Amino acid sequence: MSCQVPQGKHIVTGDIRRLAGKLYRQIGDKSIGNVSFLAKELLEQYSHAFGELLRQHKELFVKMSGCTKDEDFWVRRAAAVVLIACIMKNDYKGLAPYAIADALMQDLHDLVQKGYGWMLKCLSQMEPDAVREYLAANSMRMPRTAFRYAVEKFDRDTKEKLMAL
Q1: Which sign, positive or negative, has the C-alpha torsion 114, 152, 57, 51?
Q2: Structural domain count, the chain
Q3: How confident is the model over 121-143, as pLDDT tens digits?
Q4: Domain span holding position 141
């Protein structure tokens, strides 16, 4: 099932609601597990779209800091995940990915931990020394789930040294 938006079309909330209703009617398996899976996939796509918006309008980053305290774990996770588009295009000057990681450091939800770990993993491709130092400095307080995600792109030797901390 794929959704495409015509080029240049402005999307409003009503459009999203109509699309969501249409998609829900089209899925055969309406179990909570399947619907949750599809919602998660749509949210990931939304996060990437918002990440591109953030890349183009970095002044929106100020609002992202508040998202790290939201009661909804998906919103907290998105605070980190939306930075990935900027990071992967090496266009994150003026953003503070480490501040987001710091704010989410003690989050108990595993998907939030995976989200900011993923962000750090992407950041490690752009500034490996800084991320390595950040991970070493925070190894005792960072949950292992986030830590393992963050070290994935390091070479074997660096990864082993970090995991031994």
Answers
A1: negative
A2: 1
A3: 999 999 999 999 999 999 999 99
A4: 13-163
